[in-house]
Design brief:
Number of strands of chain B: 5
Largest sheet of chain A: 6 strands, mixed
Strand content of chain A: 15-25%
Strand order of the largest sheet of chain A: 6-7-8-3-9-10
Helix content of chain B: 55-70%
Oligomer: heterodimer
Structural class of chain B: mainly alpha
Radius of gyration of chain A: 20 Å
Strand order of the largest sheet of chain B: 2-1-3
CATH superfamily of the largest domain in chain A: P-loop containing nucleotide triphosphate hydrolases
Distance between the termini of chain A: 43 Å
Number of helices of chain B: 27
CATH class of the largest domain in chain A: Alpha Beta
Shape of chain B: globular
Helix content of chain A: 25-40%
Number of domains of chain B: 2
Chain lengths: ~260, ~600
């Protein structure tokens, strides 16, 4: 049984069919890339999985449970976390707080614990902080030490992207959805992040779906590539298979003149 | 640097500020401030509060006209005779404009439109000696005062501070006559009182001179920047030192709160009790608006619910509930009342919150505003009159008790103590919640609701929690209000209460507990609540105008509030902070590389 099984997923915005019946599945510990030209429906695909959009039709089964139409927070609690294409951190909270707040659905102290300052509350607060620091340590020295107390908007663009991944990791998901993690990064940073995505799976045990435009990243990280165009899956397979698929080339580059 | 000729003046600036000055004076006269405040003597027998409201304008605008913006990276422009010229010309212009206003007011009958332009006002403005004399006097006076404004600009920083503080001290001592007399009488210092104040009100001229000299002298002797130095000292403290510092001054503050009401009289205590009531509400609203970012304009509803619940439970005249409770917080019965008040407030928070919680921003504000009015109208309605007494309200609410001590409006001191205890509870609750996972969730919610939801925060639940906690704190305030006043009427729970509580939070600093405390003291203590008089009781009529002026000035000059929260300051001063952070980052990296900071 696949970790995530999607069948016949449809989503329209007015007259625009963003997703026109997509079938998709991902197994445990797989890394699958979703590619496609602009406007292919990739981000809508993520939005529907993570609950920000409600699907019109089709089923989304995560660990043998239907999650289509649940609230985003409920889906996160079940173990799916995401990052955003246009980085959306909590800019005025500190780096550490950004990661601490993401552990919300994994912690439980309520109003009374906080008011009475119970030992259980204090223990949990300490654990939250420790965990946040440990997760930030995953990115080397970039987000640790004096960075903990800085507000997120101070960070460089690449560091914001890293922090966003850290925040998603802190929700302790099984499945991680990365929406263009290398957008806006320079070649060196891109290469580093490619390694990091692999490490996320190999060391941390996340299953990962990644939307990516940078083909070198797609080639290096993917076990499998899914190509969307106009909300429909037009190809699927290994990077080599997909990159030589005539439909895919047509979707990206258009049809050769003599064939039209 | 070569001396600048006295004519090297930015004439456009002078013209603009002179004009503003004259128009401001005309406005103040036209809305009736001069006439109605003339009754209040400030410096006996020469200066009334009404005239004072006109006389501050020429020096202030003269100063503004002389002011030259300093460009970054450039040397400050040299000061000299040109400042005096600019100030005097601006004053002359202001006087001319105001003179024109007097002529118009004296010649034409404009009372159809400007109801306050009465002959009495004209008489006041011309000193009862005819229009010609009045206009000439104002022009001369205004030019002279403008010159003083320019002169102030030439003075070095220190001297300016001394003059300003001397004047401010005289103003405050004269204005707070009642409170000062109150304290003096407690200590049996009638001699000081007779020296300072004239029998029919107003500070005496010798008194004014002494106060001004003392204040000016103290300013000159103390070195400036005390606040800044304190800040840097506090920033340098370690966590443990800070805690000890906090505990020490916390104890001093508590001792002060216990002792202070004893040495001041009933009037000041009444005032303090009102400050406490509004502070309690503001702390609750701060949870909702400042922490969770939900703009609630119907907050008065929960205040009303608390007051009405208390009234129904304790008043023998309550139309429905016959079993009458005694509100004694040291007995089980009192706690039952409290528990019911809390439960009803929480329930009303849920009932109002659930339907509106999905709305955002402006929509939420409008809908909560509507709910606030609905609650008031329900209490007022004939339909529910058998339950709540309609427009008659519920009267005869008995006093509360703390064991043998009676807590009633007739002794505002007891009300103040009780309200202080509840404010303490509210501060504790807000502080604990803020530094917990709930507070972090609220912060995330405020910054980006969608992302917060996507990061696993049940936003609906967290919003309701903020709403309900806020509602409970407001209901405490309502409970004490009912006991204090002894009766509740729907007219005590108008929209203006919500707005004033919100203004307290905004002016003080959203999301900042010390800010809210300062906001409540400044607004309710000094200006007064919607119906409660403040220290400046004379301004009653113009209270809302002053609130408006204060809000506009704050939004322009200090949008983060008087004592902002760290996050809010970051938000509104991102650029400065970015530079700062960049420098710190450089230093930290240099330190990491083992270099000395450059």
């Amino acid at each position: 049984m696949a970790l995530l099984e999607i069948t016949g997923l449809k989503k329209a915005f007015g007259g625009l069919q963003a997703l026109g019946g997509v079938d998709f599945h991902i197994d445990d510990l797989e890394i699958v890339s979703v590619i496609g030209p602009n406007g292919a429906g990739k981000t809508t695909f993520f939005n529907v999985i993570s609950g920000l959009e409600v699907p019109d039709e089709g089923s989304i089964v995560f660990e043998e449970e239907e999650i289509g139409g649940l609230e985003p927070s409920e889906i996160t609690e079940r173990g799916i976390a995401r990052t955003f294409q246009n980085v959306r951190l909590f800019p005025d909270m500190t780096v550490l707080e950004n990661v601490m707040v993401a552990q919300h659905c994994r912690t439980h102290t309520g109003v009374w614990g906080a008011l009475l300052n119970t030992p259980a509350f204090r223990r949990e607060e300490r654990a939250i902080e420790e965990r946040a620091k440990e997760i930030l340590g995953f990115f080397g020295t970039r987000l640790v030490g004096y960075r903990f107390g800085q507000p997120a908007y101070v960070l460089s663009y690449a560091n914001r992207r890293r922090l966003e991944i850290a925040r998603a990791m802190a929700t302790m998901p099984k499945l991680l959805l990365l929406d263009e993690p290398t957008a806006g990064m320079n070649p060196k940073e891109t290469e580093e992040l490619t390694g990091l995505i692999k490490k996320l799976r190999d060391e941390r045990g996340f299953t990962i779906i990644v939307i990516e435009h940078e083909m070198r990243v797609v080639r290096d990280v993917s076990d499998r590539v899914v190509v969307l165009d106009h909300g429909v899956k037009i190809a699927e397979g290994s990077y080599e298979e997909v990159s030589s698929n005539p439909d895919v080339i047509e979707a990206y580059l258009g049809r050769p003149a003599e064939a039209g | 640097m070569t001396a600048r000729p006295a004519t090297d003046v930015d004439w456009g600036r002078v013209r603009a500020w002179g004009l503003y000055g004259g128009l401001t004076m005309a406005f103040i006269a036209a809305i009736g401030m001069v006439e109605s405040l003339d009754a209040r003597m400030m410096v006996h027998p020469v200066l009334s509060l009404g005239y004072l409201f006109l006389l501050w304008a020429p020096p202030a605008f003269g100063y503004a006209a002389a002011y030259e913006p300093v460009k970054e990276g450039m040397a400050a422009p040299a000061k000299g005779a040109r400042d005096l010229v600019a100030g005097a010309v601006a004053g002359l212009l202001a006087g001319a404009v105001f003179g024109l206003f007097i002529v118009v007011a004296a010649t034409f009958d404009l009372r159809e439109v400007f109801v306050k332009l009465s002959p009495v006002l004209v008489d006041l403005l011309t000193f009862g000696r005819g229009v010609g004399f009045g206009v000439a006097t104002w022009i001369v006076l205004s030019t002279g005062l403008g010159l003083v404004g320019g002169l102030l600009h030439v003075l070095p920083e220190r001297g300016r501070a001394a003059v300003f503080n001397a004047l401010a001290a005289v103003f405050v001592v004269a204005l707070l006559e009642l409170a000062v007399v109150d304290v003096l009488e407690t200590f049996r210092l009638e001699a000081v009182e007779r020296f300072l104040y004239a029998p029919n009100g107003g500070i005496t001229i010798p008194g004014a001179v002494v106060v001004a000299l003392v204040a000016g002298f103290v300013t000159l002797r103390t070195t400036g920047g005390a606040v800044l130095r304190f800040r840097s000292r506090y920033a340098a403290m370690t966590g443990e030192e800070r805690r000890r510092f906090g505990v020490r001054w916390g104890l001093v503050a508590i001792a002060g709160l216990v002792v202070f009401p004893m040495i001041v009289g009933g009037l000041t205590n009444e005032l303090l009790a009102n400050v406490g009531l509004f502070l309690l509400m503001a702390l609750g609203l701060n949870l909702v608006v400042g922490y969770a970012g939900l703009l609630d304009l119907g907050y008065v509803a929960f205040f009303a619910v608390g007051a009405y619940t208390t009234a129904l439970l304790t008043s023998p005249l309550s139309p429905t509930l016959k079993p009458m409770f005694r509100l004694d917080l040291l007995t089980v019965e009192g706690w039952v009342v409290m528990a019911i008040v809390i439960a009803v407030a929480a329930l009303s928070g849920l009932v109002i919150g659930t339907p509106v919680i999905r709305l955002r921003g402006d929509y939420l504000a409008i809908v909560t505003l509507g709910f606030g009015e609905i609650v008031r109208i329900l209490f007022l309605s004939d339909w529910l009159a058998p339950l709540f007494g309609g427009a008659q309200g519920i009267r005869n609410i008995p006093p509360g008790y703390l064991g043998p001590i009676k807590v009633a409006g007739t002794s505002p001191q007891t009300i103040f103590y009780v309200v202080t205890i509840f404010v303490g509870i509210a501060i504790y609750v807000a502080w604990r919640l803020y530094h917990s996972r709930i507070g972090r969730a609220w912060a995330a919610l405020r910054e980006d609701e969608d992302v917060a939801e996507a990061m696993g925060i049940d936003t609906t639940r967290m919003k309701l929690l903020a709403f309900v906690t806020g509602a409970i704190l407001a209901s405490f305030s309502g409970m004490i209000f009912a006991v204090k006043v002894g009766s509740v009427f729907p007219s005590s729970f108008k929209l203006i209460v919500s707005i004033i509580v919100l203004v307290i939070v905004i002016v003080g600093g959203m999301g900042s507990i010390p800010g809210v405390v300062i906001g409540a003291v400044v607004l309710i203590g000094v200006l007064g609540g919607p119906t409660q008089p403040g220290l400046l009781a004379e301004f009653g009529e113009f209270k809302l105008l002053l609130y408006g002026v204060l809000l506009v000035v704050m939004m322009l000059r200090r949008p983060e509030g008087l004592w902002p929260s760290v996050q809010r300051q970051r938000e509104l001063h991102q650029e400065e902070f970015l530079q700062d952070a960049w420098l710190k980052t450089e230093a930290a990296q240099a330190a990491a590389r083992g270099e000395a900071p450059s």
